[in-house]
Amino acid sequence: MKVLFYSSVNIDMVFHVDHIVAPGETQSSFGVSVGAGGKGANQAAALAKALNCADGPTVYLAGKCGDDGKFILDKLSGFGVDVSYMRRASCGTGQAIIQVDKDGQNSIILYGGGNQRIEREEVDETLSFFSKDDVLCVNCEINDLGYVIDSAYEKGMRIFLNPSPVNEVLSQIDFSKVSVLVVNEVEGAALAGLEGGAAYEDLIEALSLRWPSCEVVMTVGGDGAYYSFQWQTLKISAVKTCVVDTTAAGDTFMGYFIASRLNGMNAEDSLKRAGLASSITVSRPGAMDSIPFGNEVGVLR
Distance between CA atoms of 5 and 33, rounded to whole angstroms? Predict the structure, then answer.
């Protein structure tokens, strides 16, 4: 079985500030750093770290970035991610401007770059190397996402979708083709049409009723995470930690949840392991570099 992330690569420029900048406000930053990011790249790194791919199975990343993103591909390769399906974008690599406030919360501005220049011929060529029972992982930071999902579904691939960020790309997606849906509470409310402050239990129930053939996972920050599929509904509490930077917390959760499920772990233990990994991520600064390796997280007993 192969796992393919057809997704995004971004160069993250992170500014550490007292509070998220308000409209019309100018604020000094305590520090700035440039690092590897993008939801797809982060999630692929999380899965590879969880599976210890440097010494074992391979995770694949497909998409587009510029020459300026080579350092990200090199870093991913070091984690055991196969980046041979990444193509060069003349417009350069996607960019993210990230503000991180004193409480570790963030605000992000994205420029798509190569993530928004993916062509259908490239999708067809890449997916020709994958087959039934392989896994596709996607999010909303690339263009033509509906075509990627439709093409993978026709091949019989199992599809994990993180519909983030919530944008117009969602209108392209046939959610009945998705095997596992991973959202946070904001994304879940948008998909359920319950943005008016519904209880988390109502959100997860609404999503499960809307797409009954899909496993639904919803992370809710410091309140933990929920899971629902058919007759089973679960909730786990968050692992308490000192929050430094919440960037890549959701990406870590998704990568570790996928790894745990693919290794045969049940839904509850998969949620717990993903939550523990995310708690380590938020206790460190940065995105991809803050994601822990599997031996740091351990195996639940």
Answer: 26
Active site residue 18: no
CATH number of domain containing 121: 3.40.1190.20
Phi, psi of 100 (to 5 degrees): -120, 120
- Report yes or no: 208 and 231 within 8 Å, Cβ to Cβ: no
Number of domains in the chain: 1
215-219 and 232-236 strand pairing: unpaired
Find the domain containing 92 and state its range. Answer: 3-22+30-297
The DSSP string of 184-215 is EHHHHHHHHT-TTT--HHHHHHHHHHHSTTSE
| pTM of the shown model | 0.91
- Residue-wise pLDDT tens digits, 234-289: 999 999 999 998 888 999 999 999 999 999 999 999 999 999 999 999 999 888 99
The span from the CA of 6 to the CA of 261, in Å, is: 19
Q: Which of 202, 251, 269, 289 is catalytic?
A: 251
What digits encode the pLDDT tens for the residues 82-141? 999 999 999 999 999 999 999 888 898 989 999 999 999 999 999 999 999 899 999 999
What is the C-alpha separation between 120 and 141, in angstroms, rounded? 16
* H or E, element range at 71: helix 70-78
Pairwise CA distance, residues 74 & 204, whole Å? 38
**Do 202 and 194 touch, CB atoms closer than 8 A?**
yes
> Would you state the structure tokens that stand for residue 242, as one six-digit string?
């000192």
